[in-house]
Amino acid sequence: MEITLVEESLYRFRIEQRDLMRVPGVVFASKELLPQAAGDKALEQVANVATLPGIVRASFAMPDVHWGYGFPIGGVAATDTAHGGVVSPGGVGFDISCGVRLLAAGIDRDVLGHQRMRHLMDILDAAVPRGMGRGGLWKLSGTGEMDNLLVGGARYAVEHGHGVPRDLDRCEDFGVLEGAAPGQVSSRAVERGLHQVGSLGSGNHFL
C-alpha cells in the first residue's frame, strides 16, 4: 500500500482516506522520524486501523510509532460501540507491561567502565523476564489467585511482596480498578496469563 502524507503543520501529518479507510490517519512526528515509520510499514498499519468498525475521528500515531502486531506501536484509536466499535485487546497488546523508571546510582560512569557496564546489563537481562512464553517472576497458584489479582490489582501484588506501598502512589487509581469482573475474562486468557505475571512480555523494552 502506498502511503501519501499531507503536512498539516510542523509536527502533524495526515494520511488521506482511501480504499476501506473510514477515517483519515493522523501522524504526530518530525520529518526526521517519518522515514523510519514508513520504512517498517508502521504507517500502513495506521491506515489499516482506520478501517475498523466504529472508529472515531482518526487513526492516530504518536512520535514513537513503529511496526506492531496488527496495530502499530504508538497507535491510538477510539471506537464508538453505538456504531459497531469494539474494545480491542489486540490494539493494546495482551503482553504489555510498559513503564519508564530511572534508577540513579552514585557511581561514576568512568569508574564503572565499559566491561563492568556490560556485566551489569547482562545481570539485568538475566533477572528481568521478558519475551513471549518465558514466564514471569510470580508463580500464581491457580485461577483463584489470578481472580484475586485481577480484583486487587497492584495493591494485591504489593501485599504479596511484589512491590512496595509507595509504588501504588505512582499508579493511576493506586493500581486498583473498581468493579473489576474476573468472570468476564476467558479461561484461555487466564491460562495464558498465569505464567506471564511478573514479566515484561515481548516487544522492544529498554533496560
Lateral arrangement of strands in the main beta sheet? 1-2-3-4-5
Count of alpha and pi helical runs: 7
Order of helices and strands: EEEHHEEHHHHH
Number of domains: 2
Biggest beta sheet summary: 5 strands, mixed
Overall pLDDT score: 88
Molecular shape = globular
Structural class of the secondary elements? Answer: alpha+beta
Cα-atom radius of gyration = 20 Å
Question: How much of the residues is beta strand, in percent?
Answer: 5-15%
Q: Separation of termini?
A: 35 Å
Helical percentage: 25-40%
Number of strands: 5
Low-confidence stretches: none
Topology diagram in text:
Blueprint: E1 5-9, E2 12-15, E3 25-28, H1 34-39, H2 42-49, E4 59-66, E5 73-76, H3 89-92, H4 109-127, H5 143-159, H6 165-168, H7 187-194
Parallel strand pairs: 3-4
Antiparallel strand pairs: 1-2, 2-3, 4-5
In short:
InterPro entries: RtcB, RtcB-like_sf. Keywords: GTP-binding, Ligase, Manganese, Metal-binding, Nucleotide-binding, RNA repair. The chain is α+β, with helices and mostly antiparallel strands and 207 residues long.
Describe this entry's structure for a reader.
By secondary structure, the protein is of the alpha+beta class. It has two domains: 5-92, no CATH class; 109-194, no CATH class. It is 32% helix and 12% strand. The chain is built from seven helices and five strands. It has helices at residues 34-39, 42-49, 89-92, 109-127, 143-159, 165-168, 187-194; strands at 5-9, 12-15, 25-28, 59-66, 73-76. The chain has a five-stranded mixed sheet. β1 (5-9) and β2 (12-15) form a beta hairpin. It starts with a strand and ends in a 13-residue tail after the last helix. Mn(2+) binds at residues 95, 205. This is 3'-phosphate/5'-hydroxy nucleic acid ligase. It comes from Kitasatospora camelliae.
